Every structure is written in C-alpha cells, then in structure tokens.
Amino acid sequence: MTRIVYVNGDYLPETEAKVSIFDRGFLFADGVYEVTSILGGKLIDFAGHAKRLQRSLDELAMANPVTEDELLAIHRELVRLNEIDEGLIYLQITRGAADRDFAYPKDATPTIVLFTQSKPGLAENPLARTGMKVISIEDQRWGRRDIKTVQLLYPSMGKMMAKAAGADDAWMVEDGHVTEGTSNNAYIVKGNTIVTRHLGNEILHGITRAAVLRFAREAQMVVEERPFSVAEAKAADEAFITSASAFVMPVVEMDGQPIGAGKPGNVTARLREIYLDEMRKAAV
Ligand code: PDD
Predict the structure, then answer these.
(1) Which atom of ligand 1 lies at the shortest distance from residue 48's CA?
(2) According to the model, what pLDDT value does residue 255 have?
C-alpha cells in the first residue's frame, strides 16, 4: 500500500508529494514540527500538540495555515487513509518558499506537510521491559530548545554517538546538569521523588512530560522540577524518559554504569501503565 501524505491541502501518494527547493525549511531550518502518537487508531493528546505547535509558530512570527479543527481533521483523515492502528503522525510547518535572504520574507505562504509512520507494537515496545542505556554528552544545541524547530542535526549526532558507544540514546549535559535526551525529556527517581529539569528555554516542553507529571502528582508521588547532575543520575534508584513516541521508557544504564538495580524500576513501570491507560481513554 502506497502511503498517502498531506501537502498544502492535497492528499497524495508519497511519491507525488513535492516541496520547493527554495523552501525556508530546507534552506534555513525555518520550520517547526510535532509528532503525535496513534494508539488503537486514535490520536494521543492531540490538543496538547496543537497548543505547543501554535506556541512554536508564535515564537517565530510564523503564520499558521490551518485552524486547530482543520488540523485535527487532516490527522484523522491520514490515519483513515493509511489504516494506522499504532504509529506516529509527523507534522511540519515552514515559513514557505522565498528567494534566499536571512530576513523573514513578507509574502511567503507557509508550507504544511504531514505523514504517518505505521509502528505496530508501539505500546508493547520490548525496551520497556529491558530498559535503555544512555551516555552523557555535552549539550551543544542552540539556546531556544523550547521551540520545536526542525534543527535536529545535533540530536542526530548525539544519537550516533550513543550508537557508537553501544547505547540507545544520549542525555545532554550543560554546566554539569542534564537538560534532556536527544528526542525526549529526562527524569530520575530517588525514593518516592521524581526529579526532572524545570521548564525554560533549555528544554522542549514535552507534551508527554506535562501529562506524566500530572499523573505522578495525582498518584501522590513527589515531583521536583529542577536541574539534576550526572552524578545524581548515576546514584538514582531509577531513571526514565518520556516522549510521544516512547511514552514512559526506563533507563537502566548511564555511561556504562547501572542505575539503581540496573533494571526497570517500579515507579517507572507504574507511570508507564497509568500514562498508557489514561491517554488511551482520552484519545480522539
Ligand atoms: N521528540 N525533548 C526533545 C528534544 C524532543 O525532541 C522531544 C520529542 C521531547 C518530548 O516531547 P513530547 O513528549 O512532546 O514528544 C523532549 C519527538 C518525539 C521527535 O522528535 O520525534
């Protein structure tokens, strides 16, 4: 089955979808994106992703070519056309095509592209049972990581550094403190306390993070939103990451050293279960 994608108002086979070589997403990484998961053919936390998308666009003075209702309809239509049961939808909006100039063009029409990725077994990921290994690397990204832009080269490099070290991902570190994973938010657990970096320009304001922290507090867990060091992570009882594609995923090793018992912990397992249960119920 040929995948059907969405480009600027049209649903097309992926082989027929085209974007200009002058698109500022291509030339300047002048674009923002969202990744929303699909479970049971329904969208997980669509409203959260739509809200963050608008914030990213506003921060860059970029026009939104669609309303939230239109965006939801496009997501649903792509899920239907591609018969997705479990997987992801990628959405990208760029400032559009214009002659190359560093200043934002005045009259460019934004480009909007969406495509699905079928991932059967997304929720039953075997990594949730074994846990991930991470390495720590210096955070060399730009200073506005709260805007979800398509500038993902350093995170890609980080992922390659992790692979080369035999690990699954890298946690990025600034001034001795963990910011986040290459494509996820990072957490440690000590006793009954969950620690994760506070919101600011240094990290992406994860949609999964917001839901997981809400569920943790509702379950009477203590949450501290503050920076934590690499040493603190290595001495933690548990560690985990969150993202729209991994949900809540245990981390069992950092820089070759086991974290806690070196296997997925109870707090992480419980949060993963609560998150998946609650978000499936609220899916649209
Ligand atoms: N990444 N931090 C970074 C740097 C991210 O790229 C992501 C998401 C997150 C988690 O955000 P959320 O919970 O809203 O998915 C944190 C997506 C999944 C990606 O790039 O594929």
Answers:
(1) 14
(2) 98
What confidence score (pLDDT) does residue 218 get? Answer: 97
Cβ(243) – ligand 1 distance below 6 Å: yes
CB of 113 closer than 6 angstroms to any ligand 1 atom: no
Closest C-alpha to ligand 1, atom 16: 184
Q: Give backbone dihedrals phi and psi of 280, rounded to 5 degrees, phi first.
A: -60, -40
So what's the pLDDT on residue 76?
A: 98
The pair of structure tokens assigned to 189 is 């657990």
Cα(240) to centroid(ligand 1), Å? 14
Q: Does residue 87 come out as left (phi exceeding 0), alpha (psi in the -120 to 50 range) or beta?
A: left
204-209 own/partner pairs: CB under 8 Å, 24+ apart: 204/145, 204/146, 204/148, 204/180, 205/52, 205/146, 206/180, 206/242, 206/243, 207/45, 207/48, 207/49, 207/52, 207/244, 208/45, 208/242, 208/243, 208/244, 208/247, 208/248, 208/275, 209/185, 209/242
* Ranges under pLDDT 50 in the chain: none
Q: Where are the alpha helices (DSSP H) in 82-206?
A: 127-130, 153-164
Q: What is 127-282's CATH number, 1.10.540.10, 3.20.10.10, 3.40.190.10, 3.40.50.300?
A: 3.20.10.10
Residue 1's pLDDT is what? 85
CATH topology of domain 4-122: D-amino Acid Aminotransferase; Chain A, domain 1 (3.30.470)
Strand partners, 5: 12
Centre of ligand 1 from the C-alpha of residue 27, in Å: 23
Closest ligand 1 atom to Cα of 155: 4
